[in-house]
Amino acid sequence: MTTENDPLAGLDEIDWSALEHAYGAADDVPEQLRALCGADAEERAKALHELYGNIFHQGSRYEASAAAVPFLARMAADVSLPDRHEALELLAALAIGYDEAHLPGGVDVTGWRQETARFAAKDPERIRAEYDAWVAEASDEGERRVREMHRAMLDVDAQLRAAGAELGAYGAVRQEVPALCVLLDDGDPAVRAATAYLLAWFPEEADRTVPPLLRLLDRETDQAVVATALVAVGLLGDAEQAGRLGTFLTAGDRTVRWAAATALARLGSTGSGAAVGAEVLAELAAAEADPPEPGPPGILFHEGDLRGYAAASLTQLADRYPAEALDAVTDGLAAATGPACFAVAAAALRLAFGGQRPAGLPAFADLDHRQQRLVRVLAALDDGTWRWVNFLEILRAWGLPQDRAAMRAYAGMPA
Description:
Elements: E1 20-21, E2 24-25, H1 29-36, H2 41-54, H3 63-77, H4 84-96, H5 109-121, H6 124-136, H7 141-152, H8 156-180, H9 189-199, H10 206-219, H11 223-236, H12 242-246, H13 254-268, H14 278-289, H15 306-314, H16 322-335, H17 341-353, H18 369-380, H19 383-386, H20 389-397, H21 404-410
Antiparallel strand pairs: 1-2
Helix pairs in contact: 1-2, 3-4, 3-8, 4-8, 4-9, 5-8, 6-7, 9-11, 10-11, 11-13, 13-14, 13-15, 14-15, 14-16, 15-16, 15-17, 16-17, 16-18, 17-18, 17-20, 18-21
């Protein structure tokens, strides 16, 4: 039985078995949502893990994803429940997938909808023909095999359903934004931080969300919450907010300074008229060399990888500080290892080669000294980094050797 204020009100009125998630019928979702409201911490953790696996499976969203949104939003607002920040974090994931896909620029929801509409309007045979042409255009055998794998997995109908489910989940979370704004005043800093993070992904709600985010900056004492709100305003705002955000570049806390620089780099890249000064470059470069370590509740953006986010932000400064930005990101790459290298390597290669893959692998002697340094840093990364397929795919995208020994030979380094 439910009451008017019960976050699970109406849960049993939905035919969950008629909805789909990653593993078929979504009839297990109601019990998982109930468990999130329970007193048993282990059961809550288990239910949350299962929900990330079925309604957010490796970033995918499904029919059941949007259906779960209102219940999660009411859980986040119910102060009698524990771990409410986790409901907000799951809502953000359901809305946008993995946030790295939208950083450093923010969610381009208009472009997202247009791309989905164009895909839906295409004849399936034309889509298959385009994939065939894409495979034929591969520049080498390794890339061709990767493209052939994607072509073999192509299911146009499934892609259309997935695209619709993603936009459906995004729209469902957007409907909850007005009610969730009040959680910026919540007594739990983890809830305030998760709310600011969630609001960052809805540019169409900026008129409603930026003012309370700015008010939060006026009173907030938790530095991780301040940093999260700064990045959120940077992703949503325009030049009008640049002056206010710039005052945080002199804050005593490094995480706050990183966040202010991140926000201003994004505003400076939007054509909004926001100026980006050398102090923004300096703060992002400092984060590359030695990223700050925020205390609890931490930073949710870019999964807490502040060096990786700083590298992406530095690509936004390439028009004004091309050499300095590349030097800073290369410094960061030299200090990173394993998965922490992925975003930094991608940013460094983009800065080094201007965003376009070279037509062929140039002679090492034909590279300028900054490009040569980057190649040497890549070649010097440890075996643990070179074992990751993700890292090799980044190198493949730029036509560089995907074998450590070959990269070292290319750079004229000893085996």
